[in-house]
Amino acid sequence: MNRILIVGHKNPDTDSIVSAIAAQEFFAKAWGKDAKAHRAGVLNNETKFVLESFGVEMPEMISAVGDDESVALVDHNETSQVFEALDFGKVDFIFDHHKVAIVTEKPIFCRVEPIGSTSSLIAKMFFEKNVEISETSAKLLLAGILSDTLNLLGPTTTEEDKILAGKLNEIAKIEIEKFVAEMFKAKSSLEGISVEDIITLDYKDFEMGKHKVGVGTWETTFPESVNEKKDEILAALRKKKEDAGLGYVFFMVVDIIAQNCQLYVIGEDEKVLAEKVFGGKLENDMMFLPGVVSRKKQIAPQLTEELSK
Ligand SMILES: [Mn+2]
Fold first, then answer.
1. For the domain that residue 271 is a member of, what is the CATH number?
2. How many Å lie between the centroid of ligand 1 and the Cα of residue 162?
3. Residue 19 has pLDDT above 70, yes or no
4. Which of the four, 9, 24, 43, 157, has the lowest number of CB atoms within 10 Å?
5. How high is the mean pLDDT of the chain?
6. How many domains is the chain partitioned into structurally?
7. How far is the CA of 170 from the centre of ligand 1 (A)?
């Protein structure tokens, strides 16, 4: 039987790691398939905290895909997000909650829903099939939902996420508020994090009209800790823009408690665009955007619309 390597995106976040681990259990129990969770990069402090809390080992780093192996992508499907060595012809499964951005050359299993997290989707598949979820997978999936939806408060949260989180916690039995506070504290920790890490750990390139645009995000309970390093971050972003030949680069410092964002604006091009699209006022190279926390829903589509004109 050919083995399936399950893997999330580069610059992995909690959702892309825990959904891969739980999907391994789903593949085995629901479909009798030999599958193994992997990761496509270094774990962030939040994900490390989640795995340590539940006594789960970090998945192996993905490298090459063997002849008798195929790939299941979780939490992404864009070519800019996949691990370097991937041949797209090897992908037989996609489980995701982002926009569909690929054309495949063969029929594959593809399940993409507008839901708050890939963890929600995997949980839903367990419940639909009446397949028992282990306590560990329930905890991991619950953490994935709470992380991606910012404790079910962010704009990507759906009613279904809330219901699924409730059902998972009948098995996981964690104290959600306490756990979320600790998880967000770990997410905000800058321990061992360089300026380069800050701008790349949650970073995405987009094709917007004819432009290549990079948007980095840092979610935190304590924006001041990042804003203190603003000048270094701006310099690193300017370098990234030049090195990667990008049309525009933005960086969001998201306050996950107050639910707002400081958008870092690195130069004149970005200033003109941001003022047009978001209408905020620029102060010290930052634009305050109340209520804005989601790159996927509140930043990328708006920029894409303007740049596609
Ligand atoms: Mn996700």
1. 3.10.310.20
2. 15
3. yes
4. 43
5. 96
6. 2
7. 22
